[in-house]
Each structure stands twice: as C-alpha cells, then as structure tokens.
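Need residues for this backbone.
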C-alpha cells in the first residue's frame, strides 16, 4: 500500500473494545472516538448493545462478537446470540469458529456451525474468526473454504485472546490467496501501530481490528 491519508486508513479500522471489564462509559468514549475519526466500525461485546442513538456517525457500523472468545459453545447458542445482537443494532457479527471441530477435521460440522449463524442473521455482515495461531496452513485453507461455502462475508485471523497470538502476515497472505477476493480479510490481534497496520493491508487485509486506532491514525500526518 502506498501513502494513505488518515481518512483512508480510518475506513479500514474496526475500533475495538473487547475487555470483559469494559464499562458503558468506556464504550461511550469508544463511540466518540469512532465518530471523530470516521472509522469503519466499532466492535464491542454483545451486552453493551444497543448503542444509543446519536453516539455514532452514519458511516460507522456496529459490530459485536459471537461465541467469543473460545467458539466452543453450541451452534444454536451462537445463532441465538447473533440474532439477539442483530435485533439490538449490530450490523456486523464476528463469530469464533469451533476449533475442536477444526482439529478433528469435521468439516461438515464446521461449515454447519457457520451456516447456522448465517441463517440467523442473513442481512448482517458475517466475519468468521479462525484463530490462525492454532492452525496449520492446510487447516487455514479448509476453514476459509468452509466459511465461503457457508455464506460468510469475511474471514478473520484471531480473537486477540488466545495465547498463540494474533494476526501474522503469513496467515493474512494465506487467507487472501485462498479466498481470492471473494471474501474480505480481517486482521486482528496485536496490531498496535501504523507500520503493522499498513503491512497487514499490503498482505491482503481489507479490515483491521484494533484497540490502538487512535495511535495508528495519529501517526499519519
């Protein structure tokens, strides 16, 4: 990616606050910052919904997490959580894949897990969190294929909560090669500065999840 303006970079960013202890006051501040910089979306935990009217600009989406951070809940629970979140104003949902199913190579179950969330929120933007630090290259490919078959809009690298770490350039490149532009790529986890954000975009990311939004944007003159 060549030189970008602050406004251009802002449209890549999901301004994120997923700490379990986050308060409504902190979410309100997140919204103020998101509106000031005109970012693509905010991302908060489901219980923080709905976001009060007037807290966000018209160009900033409301995103929440589903089955977060483990993904190891009943598929029906993910679907119900997604439906509740959409009804409460979330237009984007980031669901965590079931890693046990992935490691067992139960690909039909992996696809169905995603597909049931897709059915629950047909009008929402659906992003599937792969937790790439846990996966082999072949597993990343298979997860991307399952997400595409199930009707997801994006695949996403990481929750940022797993001890194996967050986004890597190798994972983003592999995901981008697998989906071939048919799905978006969200890089998330450990992206704390402008250089890292730019490198992720260069590798193929079309969205960046970060809690360091202000630092990234203020680094652009």
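Answer:
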């Amino acid at each position: 990616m060549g030189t970008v303006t602050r406004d251009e970079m802002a449209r890549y960013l999901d301004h994120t606050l997923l700490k379990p202890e986050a308060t409504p006051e902190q979410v309100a501040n997140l919204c103020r910052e998101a509106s000031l910089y005109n970012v693509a979306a905010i991302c908060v935990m489901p219980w923080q919904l709905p976001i009060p009217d007037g807290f966000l600009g018209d160009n900033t989406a409301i995103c929440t997490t589903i089955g977060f951070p483990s993904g190891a809940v009943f598929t029906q629970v993910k679907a119900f959580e997604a439906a509740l979140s959409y009804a409460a104003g979330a237009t984007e949902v980031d669901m965590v894949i079931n890693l046990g199913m992935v490691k067992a190579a139960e690909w039909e179950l992996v696809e169905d897990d995603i597909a049931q969330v897709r059915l629950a929120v047909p009008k929402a933007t659906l992003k599937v969190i792969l937790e790439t630090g846990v996966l082999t290259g072949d597993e990343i490919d298979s997860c991307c294929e399952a997400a595409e078959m199930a009707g997801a809009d994006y695949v996403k690298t990481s929750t940022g909560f797993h001890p194996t770490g967050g986004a890597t350039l190798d994972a983003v490149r592999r995901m981008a090669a697998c989906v071939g532009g048919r799905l978006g790529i969200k890089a998330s986890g450990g992206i704390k500065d402008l250089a890292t954000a730019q490198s992720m975009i260069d590798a193929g990311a079309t969205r960046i999840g970060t809690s360091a939004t202000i630092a990234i944007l203020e680094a652009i003159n």
